[in-house]
Design a protein that fits this description.
This protein starts with a helix and ends with a strand. It has one domain: Endonuclease/exonuclease/phosphatase (Deoxyribonuclease I, Chain A), CATH 3.60.10.10. The radius of gyration is 19 Å and the shape is globular. The strands form four sheets. Strands 5-6-4-1-17-15 form a six-stranded mixed beta sheet. A six-stranded mixed beta sheet has the order 7-8-9-10-14-11, covered by helices on one side. The protein has a three-stranded antiparallel beta sheet with strand order 12-13-16, with no helix packed on it. The chain is α+β, with helices and mostly antiparallel strands. α4 runs parallel beside α5. β2 and β3 form a beta hairpin.
Amino acid sequence: MKAWLSSLVLLASLSAQALTIGAYNIRNFDYDERYKIRTNKPELAKLLRGLNVDVLSVEEIGNTVEWDRFVAGSLPGYDTEISRCGGRGGQHLGFLYNKSTVELLAFNEDLSIVEPGTPGSCDGSSRPLAIGLFRVKATGQRFYGMTAHLKAGSNADAASKRAKQLEVLGRIIDELKSKTGVQDFYFAGDLNTTEYLRRGNDYTILNRMAQSKGMMVLTGNLPCSAYWWGGSDDGIESPTLLDHIVVTPGLSRTRQAAQTHGHCALVRCREVPVKELGVIYESVSDHCPVTAVLQ
């Protein structure tokens, strides 16, 4: 009887195992040529440690050697895997993960998302898709994580390319499910959904794609995930929602609300003067980390 009860307790504990995933565009780590700003690494380390993530999709890693050094020196217990390719802008992407809770079993990058309809190239106009196969150490559950950084811009051509990139991403998910038998997936990152808050094309296309794959957009109700100058040079910065986390039900049985962090949380996604956004906005990134707890 005791053994039976112990087994039930263990099973309940394993089934309740929470997994925290997220995404963060770290604006051209570790030096932004556009604004001549070097990444404030102490502030970045403090922010990342506070997220307590198990797997974080990261984008815009310009200096991959320095990123590896930063993770090793400033984030004890974490490891990282970053793409070889980063598009012509050298914006590499991949994962930061907690070695005590998850194991990275395999990693590769898919270039077919760079220029949909072509094989793609390492120095194309967009970034590859970073794909990681993970195992949750406490439960043995395997899942694929995908980090995406889709085409930027609010014009029609950019929006059309993002739609095609999401089609490619969906096909990759289908192929991996068929070939590997793994059914649990998430994709996350800077999807550049410039019209999401206005319920425009980006909103429709992302949600339609997620629904077609039986996935949930956990970030859909966030008020923002980044700030920009708002199109008018008045010193007031405007919120926008560009970064997302999309998961299969096998990773999250309930639609847990995602959270935004950094300066987005600081000013609660209000329009504010640039000085109110603080040091993270000034010297780390215009984007904010977004996270979700999966249970």
